[in-house]
Amino acid sequence: xxxxxxxxxxxxxxxxxxxxxxxxxxLYLFPMWLTRDSKQEEALRNHLTTxxxxxxxxxxxxxxxxxxxxDRAKHRADKFHTAMDRLFNDNADTRADAVRALEQMMxxxxxxxxxxxxxxxxxxxxRTAALTGNGKRQQLPNDITAILxxxxxxxxxxDDPPMxxxxxxxxxxxxxxxxxxxxxxxxxxxxxxxxSAANLTGANLxxxxLTGANLTGAxxxxxxxxxxxxxxxxxTGCDLIDAALEHATMTGADLRGLNPGMTAVLTAAQIASATxxxxxxxxxxx
Length: 286
Hints:
Blueprint: H1 3-34, H2 38-87, H3 92-105, H4 110-127, H5 142-153, H6 268-273, H7 280-283
């Protein structure tokens, strides 16, 4: 049983005992404190007994609701732990089913949500090690596809932990419209990946391989791309405000549609090496 559930049951038991003690004091000791007349004491006790009798059904309903909530919490905890165990099963289809179950359970609590996102990141790092970006597009394993689908459908929250995807290998992967803000993607292999409309705000992509990647309309605001390889990448319509692109290789990159102000983060050499130079005059600067 989950530790939180055990604690809740313990608190419920203590509450019942305290309530019983209060009722005893109210019915037998309180009248004695208020009056020394036996008749008045008995009359007061009768009134209190009637009031308590009316309150008991209400109290029992609260106890019933509390028990229901505790039972539901236990059921959810058991379901969550089972899905977590299956997430690292040797069978990809079993892992995919676990991913879909965990996606539904992310709404249970912030703790479940954070642990699920961390588990998804762990699985992406460990299960994509054998993927390569050579040749034709590869069909991703079912569990990886399920994770990417879950990440695309989730609604980001401020308290979501940054995903640790350092060194992840997702060449040619469909990452369209994924929210990877603040993600750790240093040394990631994202060659020819579809990152169009992806949110990479504040992400760390230092030394990442983005050769041929499609970053059309992606948000790279405040993103670190130092020493990244963007050879032949498409950055049409990207938001590059405050991006760090020092020593990034951009030979043949498509920079069409960039706001002239956004090219300020690029060096003249980087702009000149791009296939579609958005600001020819900048390339001529020394």
